[in-house]
Amino acid sequence: MAANNAGDLSTAATRQLVGGAVGAIALGLGVALLRRGFTPQTGRETLAGARTHARQKRSPLRVDEPPQVKAARRLNRAAGLLGTSTLLDSAVEHYRGSFQNKAMYTPLIVSALMLAVSAHGTRDKRPIAHGVRDATYLAAALTGIAGTGFHIYNIAKRPGGFSWQNLFYGSPLGAPGAVALSGLLGYYSERLRDNESDKIPKVFGLPAGRALAALSGVGLLATAGEAGLLHFRGAYHNPFMFAPVTVPPLAGALLGETALSRPRRPRRLTRWWLRLTALLGFAGAGFHAYGVQRNMGGWRNWSQNVLNGPPIPAPPSFTGLALAGLAALGLLEEHPDA
Amino acid sequence: MLDEALHSPRGKDGRAPDPLRVGGWMPMRQYGENDEVDFAIVGTGAGGGTLACKLAEAGFSVVGFDAGAWWRPLEEFASDETHQEKLFWTDERICDGDNPLKLGSNNSGKAIGGSTVHFAMVSLRFRPEWLKSRSLLGYGADWPLDWREMWRYYTEVEQALKIAGPVNYPWGPPRPRYPYRAHELNAAALVLAKGCEAMGIPWSETPLATVSAPRGRSPPCVYRGFCVSGCSTNAKQSALITWIPRAVKAGAEIRDLAMAGRIETNDAGYVTGVHYYREGQWRFQRARNVVVAGYAIETPRLLLSSANSQFPDGLANSSGLVGKNLMAQTNQAAWGVMEDEIRWYKGPPSLAVTEHWNYTDTGKDFFGGYAYMSQGPLPRAWVSSLAGNRGLWGDALLRAMEKYNHQAGLKIVGEVLPQERNRVALADEKDRYGLPIARVTYSLCDNDKALVKHALNFMSQSLSVVGARDIWTESDDTCHLNGTARMGDDPRTSVVNADCRSWDIPNLWVCDGSVFPTVGGVNPSLTIQAIACRTADRIRAMAAQGSL
Ligand SMILES: Cc1cc2nc3c(=O)[nH]c(=O)nc-3n(C[C@H](O)[C@H](O)[C@H](O)COP(=O)(O)OP(=O)(O)OC[C@H]3O[C@@H](n4cnc5c(N)ncnc54)[C@H](O)[C@@H]3O)c2cc1C
Ligand code: SF4
Questions:
Q1: Which domain holds residue B270?
Q2: Percent of chain B scored above 90 by pLDDT?
Q3: Dihedral (Cα; B159, B162, B165, B169), 10-degree rounding
Q4: Which end of chain A has fewer CB within 10 Å, C or N?
């Protein structure tokens, strides 16, 4: 018999089921939320088709939305989602750390601002960058980079340095990285809007679609790395804990392939895999809510367990990055050379 | 009622308490007293609990007896050091010798699950050379066991208890990864870590038997630090919540509040069963085999007090060694006050460890080794240390207690040498059951004292290099008990063989901390459980060969 205690034996199966159910509910919620984002993006739609479709829907006075603006708005949404995840996560974690250092408020303020400008950007269909948004995104990217520096310094000065103990329990390296990434995505979206609609969109001189695919791919890999580290800390005690270290890295790899290979479409597998990753982000929040329940006192003791348990806001960062990846695919649909 | 379990037995009428649920019960098989069960096991702690589980899972009929109560920690363990003394074995004993032992809180428990219910969860492996310390290191006695085989059983126990340990352990031969990751270090552990780094020796997170992530119905540890008063969350993987429920599920019957008083033998020189006291009367359980697992004082006491005309010196005692070679590991400490707030009560008491002086043979003027660990005594334990061992009282005591949250400390688990004069014998006085009380005689030898001196010196230095002030040492303390029914290869110099089977009576076994020929400088429970797993495997193999 396996080395389980009686609790495990009688209830292991039920537990997995409950975990699965909570995850499934979150998944459903995620599907509902994402639907709106997905519907207009179906890959098989041709450019002309999309235009007719748009014309039918919109007032004759409105001009068509150029593809890069569409992509930019998707990116605003992605940045906003990632920003929400980092806002909530850093709020919980830094509250847990009693805001010992005033600088610990920075990610909260920056992420909140980023959320606001992302909401603004998502609704803004003008093909020009916006000064305040631009500045906010840039500030977020810089804050994230500075934060990573702080966290590295914090770990280095603890006894043991870059030991597993400090990687597990010291300041997380990946979290400020996510702030930087969402700032970067937002900044990128502003650059996209600056492109003229009839040219191949470029950002920093690179073809925008591919560069964005690469950026979101790297982001997915890095975030999966962070999840892998923390799930290793949790000893992968639940098999579902393997999901974020398998699904998103594959999505990252597919995006890498997209960035590097010759223009080709449709990328059906990549698109579906990114959607799966996006859903997994929401499901993860559900699993983490169940993880909180498994701490002493469960949700009745929420004020402690939300802090001790797995971070509920963290997994949706996968959704944000997957949306960015989908935006990249969208761009490539419009401009195979982008 | 928090102590209801002490008043009437719970493991009866076909059911037993489920310690993992509030008010929970689990079905339990029951044997009649006239049923000759395969194994009657006295004691359900690290040795007996583990063995009961493994034997039941191997298909043997097993009845376990324990003098202690069957607790449900979730509802019956209070956050109160005094109340939780209900877990200690505090029956009367007579202690003498040059260094009389203080028995009770930190060395023996009385409960289903034994001392593991309130143990500190430190789960270390023996240094391989210690199993041959006479031949390889020149002191003590050799064990009849091979370290490679033990390495496998350690792994089994670590898996069964989901030990939370470091990813890489700095000492000894490679071991498989601990099933759960190490816990976060508290400030008290960081004092140890910084001290070791300053002194140039390695340190590590301590492998602990409390989970760092959920496991079944055990939530992860909440770091409230009540471990040695009993863990009310069930994060601690004691025998009570691991081996015992497994044993019951596999068909073992466990009887709580059942004090074994005598083992019966027949004319052929075999044991036939156990006399035990439960619910106001003496009873007798027939058994094909009897295993004694009452820990290093109660085990020899039971063997000695079962003497009869055929075995006038007690059972299994042809070597005259039952009760002798008692080893109580030294447990001295260095304490100091830190500038920063430490709050050492947070979390399991010994989150960081160094085994440097277990694995280093140079720079020592003594045989054996010691590990030392960070500390976190709760206020009552600390005040009694300050009053009892430091001699503070009144205003001075009050002022010292005000520094409680800045206090840090290091404590050893030190090896002591086996000495025949350190022993458990029977006194003339009788206890409430009418059984002779144990007389425990204990004296440290020069080697033990030299080890303690070395350790106190080293630990004081490593506190001072990290800025501790007001450093003082506590030189009079002992912890885990071992020896008294040692295993060996030779019936003349040991009580049991490598399989824990007594040389004199083939169906009498001893399976607990008593069988250690030497103790090493690590806490013993992991080794006791590994030996129990091995014994179960050997019994199964012997049964298959018809040599049981
Ligand atoms: C406070 C404390 C902290 C500890 N910390 C650690 C640690 O961190 N790591 C570690 O490895 N070890 C630790 N130990 C030691 C460890 O708990 C013991 O070494 C181990 O439990 C001994 O196992 P055992 O089976 O020999 O005896 P026990 O676990 O003590 O079990 C013996 C059982 O037998 C019962 N019993 C005895 N006589 C009779 C009888 N005549 N009839 C019926 N029942 C009887 C007792 O009630 C008891 O329940 C600690 C011990 C204590 C007390
Ligand atoms: S600190 Fe952890 S192991 Fe100790 S009593 Fe509390 S929950 Fe149990």
A1: 4-545
A2: 96
A3: 0
A4: N
**What is the predicted pLDDT for the residue at B267?**
96
Please report how many Cα atoms fall inside a 13 Å half-sphere around the Cα of residue A158, on the Cβ side.
23
d(CA A324, CA A118) in angstroms, rounded, equals 13
Interchain contact, A6 vs B26, CB within 8 Å: yes
In ligand 1, the atom with minimum distance to the C-alpha of B299 is: 38
Task: Give dist(CA B273, CA B61) in Å, integer.
Answer: 14
CATH number of the domain enclosing B302? 3.50.50.60
- Show the DSSP H helices in A97-173 as ranges: 106-123, 131-157, 164-169
**Which stretch of B2-11, B408-417, B473-482 has the lowest confidence by average pLDDT?**
B473-482
Residue B57 to residue A1, Cβ atoms within 8 A: yes
Residue closest to A238 by CA, chosen among A15, A24, A23, A21: A15
Q: Which long-range contacts (CB under 8 A, 24 or more apart) does B101-107 make?
A: B101/B328, B101/B440, B101/B442, B101/B478, B101/B481, B102/B477, B102/B478, B103/B297, B103/B440, B105/B228, B106/B228, B106/B331, B106/B477, B106/B479, B107/B328, B107/B478, B107/B479, B107/B480, B107/B481
How much distance in Å is there from the Cα of B248 to the middle of ligand 2?
25
Task: List the structure tokens of A281.
Answer: 């982000």
ipTM of the complex: 0.92
Residue B133 DSSP class: I
H or E, element range at B25 = strand B25-27
User: What's the structural domain count of chain B?
Assistant: 1
- The Cα B142–Cα B140 span in angstroms is 7
CB contact under 8 A, A308 and B248: no
